[in-house]
Amino acid sequence: MRVIKKIFFTLIIVISLMISIFVWFAKSNNKDYGDNNKIMKSNRSNTKKALVIYQPSRFKVTDKIAEKIAGGIKDEGYDVTLNYPGSHLSNDISQYSIVVFGSPVYIGQISSTLTDYMKRIKNYEDKKVLIFATGSQLNNGEVDKIGENLSTIKATEKINFKNGNKDEDKAYEIGKKIAGE
């Protein structure tokens, strides 16, 4: 009987710990982290502008992917603004030719902070829109869920990044591709 009690209590502790970890990840994905404005300037004159908005991830994978995409866009002659989603951002994206949205996926959930910002934008006309999701288990249409927040247009490109830091070169090339089209 003592052994059964020990196993039971151990099981309860493990389950409680797992639930706590899931809650921790889910909360971080929906937090408004505030302004984190970074501008990557192109070396070319008469540059166009691109906007990269991404929800930061716990292990910085989404951050690195967003920065690599931005680097590829910049190297094609764009000035790129990177920032986190949230109430601090303007709904007016008229000055940008390319708009990128990215979210980590935890427990099958995308960032509500990102999707709330996307819903506030009313005009995506004449924009190239790239949507990406990061996570090890992307198989439930998460990137499509992000795209549902684009009002009446469809994303130019949708990409899942499942391999963490191994996807950085791919992200850079995708940035170059969308900027070069």
UniProtKB/TrEMBL annotation:
<dbReference type="InterPro" id="IPR029039">
    <property type="entry name" value="Flavoprotein-like_sf"/>
</dbReference>
<dbReference type="GO" id="GO:0016651">
    <property type="term" value="F:oxidoreductase activity, acting on NAD(P)H"/>
</dbReference>
<keyword id="KW-1133">Transmembrane helix</keyword>
<feature type="transmembrane region" description="Helical">
    <location>
        <begin position="7"/>
        <end position="26"/>
    </location>
</feature>
<dbReference type="GO" id="GO:0010181">
    <property type="term" value="F:FMN binding"/>
</dbReference>
<dbReference type="Pfam" id="PF12724">
    <property type="entry name" value="Flavodoxin_5"/>
</dbReference>
<dbReference type="InterPro" id="IPR008254">
    <property type="entry name" value="Flavodoxin/NO_synth"/>
</dbReference>
<keyword id="KW-0812">Transmembrane</keyword>
<feature type="domain" description="Flavodoxin-like">
    <location>
        <begin position="51"/>
        <end position="181"/>
    </location>
</feature>
<protein>
    <submittedName>
        <fullName>Flavodoxin domain-containing protein</fullName>
    </submittedName>
</protein>
<dbReference type="InterPro" id="IPR026816">
    <property type="entry name" value="Flavodoxin_dom"/>
</dbReference>
<keyword id="KW-0472">Membrane</keyword>
